[in-house]
Write a structure and sequence with these properties.
By secondary structure, this protein is of the alpha/beta class. It has two domains: 42 residues; 217 residues, Alpha-Beta Barrel (TIM Barrel). It has eight helices and nine strands. Strands 1-2-4-5-6-7-8-9 form an eight-stranded parallel β-barrel, surrounded by four helices. The longest helix is centred in the first third of the chain and has 32 residues. It starts with a helix and ends in an 11-residue tail after the last strand.
Length: 269
Amino acid sequence: MAPLLSRFLAPKTPGQKFALGMGLLLVLALVGLAWEVGYTAWAFARLQPRYPFLPAPEVWSHRGLGGQQPEETVPAWEEAIAHGAQGIEMDIHYFPGLGFALSHQRPRQPMLMLGPTLQHFGRKTHYWLDFKRSERSDLHQVARELAATVKQAGVTDLLVVESPDPDVLQAFHQEGLQTLLWISLSPHPSPWQALREQHRVRSWLLRSGAVGVSGYQGKLPPPDLGFLAGWPLFVFDLATTAETAPFCRLGQVQVFLSRSHSIFPAPCP
């Protein structure tokens, strides 16, 4: 041991000093990474997720039933509710000085506004708001305005706001809104990428205060969601009970979002 220590402490050439310094930096970086991953996993395991809407699962309408009516319109949402949808999804865009407009793409005039629409439907349904962030707006001001709009309609406890951005979700959470973290539900090509995605999702859920996770599934097979055991899932866009069945077996889906009324109001076979 002593010879090794003496050799380690012996004078070094510039090249040896550089290699030693880089080696020490690499060791410190690996220790820091291991600490971050380990702490995140520990803290995440201590969270107590809850289902914001019971009983679960429910089926909500994705942009309304657009068969006879244009999507994201009051008639389309009314048709969905009439067919048994227990909630409706809306895409919202923020305009400073005007408020929140409803449209999947960037809305055009005349704009359908969120406030009057929430007041029209009131407490007879649930709401999933997909927030399209405006980079030019102050995020905390946007959050305050959205919370005020929702509160005025009396539906704060009946809705969730979705975004892939943890900063957006954190701002909304601080204003008393329930939020969803959008994640990719596509299978990952390698175990390393899957582990990296799991760490990212854990850390963002810790940071954002979200009540659940949402993601597009379509016709893809369900991914491995074991690291999210117990967390409410909000899954879209499923159209048949054959597509919902694998998720029903997970026993943790809060909402199935669908454009088809074929699974209203009972999504699980």
